[in-house]
Inverse folding.
């Protein structure tokens, strides 16, 4: 499992699913919609190992595109957690 | 602008060394009585609410005894002004007023000025709009050096202040000018400031509004939300502010519009940009629907910010629909909206709001790709029995067609309500 933080969200990638992914749509989406933060490593898995922490924070534009690309064209391996401060409490009061 | 109530503004004036009447704020009639007893003479009881014309509205009362102060406070605290209940009263000494004056410091945005401006009149205590123009004297103030004494003297002399009082007035106005700058005010209006029987100048009222952009420099103000709200912030307002507070990557604005969370006919409203928002309201108004909230995701915000706004808009209980109102050919790359909206709808529709009408209008830069993302990303939800069966996606053909968009939303929301009622929800 690959997990890394951008400025205000967390990207989680189940890289074991990358092995059978033929499209690598996440990296393509990252280049198209953002700054190409996400790469594909020698094993064919999604990776940010070629970036240092500062680069990850700087290049991450929080575009959310890789998650959808992986869901619709890849192996549904990416989950992006975008916390919304106070929303859970707001919803809990209304249940 | 972040607005202070009168008692808050006066407290900051007091801390800045300006003369204000002795007094404190009270939340109950009993407290008001106690404060009046402490003051030990006739007092003014003034309802604290963001509104002008408080005297005419009957929420400013002059009383002679603590018992009368208690009764006046009880009467005022039972009132609402413009839908905002009055929660506090300011109890302060009744001033011995010889004459009332007006002054305000505002921003003069005219091209030749672009600076603070002082407006002064010897006709204070009344609605300033009713003061004849020739009796209102104005001077632009150097934004760096502030109001100079000689300019203040000149202004007051023109306004008819007697020679022996010019120095006193100039000193008073200069101090206000320094306070205006120090506190990063956008507006500081003292109407009236009064000359008492003993010849002192005192700030009898105070309207203080702080520049929203400066609130970060003033933690001492304790301002929760640097926004112009009609009343106390709601939970949704606070959540909306948290989205913007530390994230300057484009606009991600969200605020409550007085929705009671149960009435029918309210739509989760997500316009993109101010002009677009007005057209979206036209779309809703034309068919009798109402916005539950106001939002704005323009200025090229990042996907996560759009997601947060959309998620909050869609999380409001009992809304009858969702309108993504992109009534403009936007320059910003709209695919960030598309990615964010798909993520939100995929999370919300299947779990908590199946069948919710969602009219998505997205036009402008990267429109074709954006609409394709919406269609492809939501395709499996948009089946005849799927949770996204009432999603409709439109592009530039409908960018100005508020009537059509409104009618589609109305038709879908009627269908949705009927379905919910048939299910006993």
């Amino acid at each position: 499992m690959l997990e890394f933080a951008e400025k205000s969200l967390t990207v989680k990638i189940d890289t074991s699913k990358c092995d059978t992914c033929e499209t690598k749509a996440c990296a393509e989406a990252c280049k198209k919609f953002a700054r190409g933060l996400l790469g594909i490593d020698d094993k064919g898995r999604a990776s940010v190992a070629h970036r240092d922490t500062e680069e990850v924070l700087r290049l991450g534009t929080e575009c959310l595109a890789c998650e959808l690309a992986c869901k619709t064209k890849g192996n549904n391996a990416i989950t992006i957690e975008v916390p919304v401060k106070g929303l859970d409490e707001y919803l809990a009061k209304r249940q | 602008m972040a607005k202070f109530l009168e008692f808050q503004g006066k407290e900051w004036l007091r801390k800045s060394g300006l003369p204000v009447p002795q007094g404190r704020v009270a939340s109950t009639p009993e407290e008001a009585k106690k404060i009046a007893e402490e003051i030990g003479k006739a007092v003014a009881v003034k309802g604290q609410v963001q509104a002008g014309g408080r005297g005419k509205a009957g929420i400013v009362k002059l009383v002679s005894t603590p018992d009368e102060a208690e009764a006046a406070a009880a009467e005022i605290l039972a009132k609402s002004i413009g839908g905002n209940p009055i929660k506090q009263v300011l109890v302060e000494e009744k001033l011995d007023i010889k004459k009332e004056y007006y002054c305000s410091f505002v921003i003069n945005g005219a091209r030749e000025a672009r600076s603070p401006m002082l407006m002064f009149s010897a006709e204070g205590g009344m609605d300033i709009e009713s003061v004849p123009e020739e009796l209102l004297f104005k001077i632009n103030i150097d934004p760096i050096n502030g109001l100079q004494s000689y300019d203040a003297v000149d202004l007051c002399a023109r306004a008819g202040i007697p020679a022996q009082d010019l120095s006193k007035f100039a000193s008073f106005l200069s101090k206000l000018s320094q306070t205006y700058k120090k506190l990063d005010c956008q507006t500081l209006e003292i109407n009236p400031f009064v000359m008492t029987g003993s010849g002192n100048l005192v700030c009898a009222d105070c309207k203080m509004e702080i520049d929203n952009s400066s609130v970060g420099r003033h933690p001492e103000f304790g301002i929760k939300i640097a926004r112009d709200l009609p009343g106390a912030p709601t939970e949704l307002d606070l959540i909306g502010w948290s989205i913007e507070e530390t994230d300057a990557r484009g606009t991600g604005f969200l605020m409550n519009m007085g929705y009671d969370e149960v009435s029918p006919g309210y739509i989760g409203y997500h316009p993109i940009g101010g002009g677009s928002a007005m057209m979206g309201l036209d779309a809703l108004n034309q068919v009798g629907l109402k916005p539950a909230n106001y939002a704005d995701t323009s200025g090229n915000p990042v996907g996560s910010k759009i997601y947060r706004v959309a998620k909050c808009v869609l999380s409001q209980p009992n809304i009858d629909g969702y309108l993504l109102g992109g009534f403009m050919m936007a320059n910003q790359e709209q695919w960030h909206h598309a990615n964010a909206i798909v993520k939100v709808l995929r999370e919300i529709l299947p779990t908590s709001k199946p069948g919710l009408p969602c009219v998505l209008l997205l036009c402008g830069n990267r429109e074709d790709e954006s609409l394709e993302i919406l269609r492809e990303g939501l395709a499996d939800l948009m089946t005849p029995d799927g949770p996204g069966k009432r999603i409709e996606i439109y592009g530039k053909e409908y960018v100005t067609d508020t009537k059509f968009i409104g009618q589609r939303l109305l038709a879908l929301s009627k269908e949705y309500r009927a379905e919910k009622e048939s299910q006993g929800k």
In short: The two ends of chain B are 41 Å apart (CA to CA). The mean pLDDT of chain B is 94. The longest helix of chain B spans residues 402-422. The first strand of chain B starts at residue 2 and ends at 4.
